[in-house]
Amino acid sequence: MSLTASCCRCARPVGSDGTCPTHGPVPALWRRAAGSEASYDDFAAVLRRSDDLPVLVPWPMSAGWTVADFGVVATEDEHALATVAAVSGTSSLDGEVGLSLVVEEPRVGLGGRCSGTGELDPGEWVGAGPPAVRVQVERRSVALWPAASSDADDVLARSVFVGEYAGRWLWLVVTPASAALLLRDDWLLADASGFGPEAVEMSFGGAPADW
To answer: Positive or negative, the Cα torsion across 112, 74, 101, 135?
Structure first.
């Protein structure tokens, strides 16, 4: 197992006292070590730390798609506050595609880190007007609204959608932005922490996500 700790709000490492040089005392994001290959053993370590928080992945995964990255934000007493999983694959229109899924309690900031928005929580625009897309999470339809990036250069780099699932924020980050068209049909998402024999069918690999 090779999980390392960084700030849940930025990519800086946290010290032994759990302090980020930028954000001060923060719960750590435990993620596979830089340079290491994504593996089932590390993914299982994240699942064990996830407590009652779901770790969402598209399921069933399309042929050629892999689990590329993952992590869990937890307090010192191992209470889970957020999870993230990233998958990668290809589409005929967009080439290499990445999808990151964050489930988090309010005021954590992992979604803001992974999406590039820098927000602790999404704004009042969530729920305003019709949703941009819907996903199916454990057979429940979840509405998502588009989030604006804090960086104009990210407009073409990624699309970000946010909604509420089971009293928590659900962030969906798609790269490149044009690949959001893949969401025109309801995507099926499942909680990997509830997998049994299905877990052996998961493929791991690909470049780590840039969060």
So the answer is: negative
What is this structure's pTM?
0.94
Distance from C-alpha of 158 to C-alpha of 173, rounded to nearest angstrom: 7
Q: Find the mean pLDDT for residues 35-44.
A: 89
What are the residue ranges of helices labelled H in 21-73?
A: 40-49
CA atoms of 171 and 146, how far apart (whole Å): 10
User: How far apart are the C-alpha atoms of 57 and 135, rounded to whole Å?
Assistant: 11
Name which of 208, 209, 203 is nearest 66 in CA terms. Answer: 203
CA distance 126 to 13: 31
How far, in Å, CA of 20 to CA of 26, rounded? 7
Is the peptide bond between 176 and the residue preceding it cis, with omega within 30 degrees of 0? yes
**Model confidence over 167-190: pLDDT tens digits?**
999 999 999 988 888 887 678 999
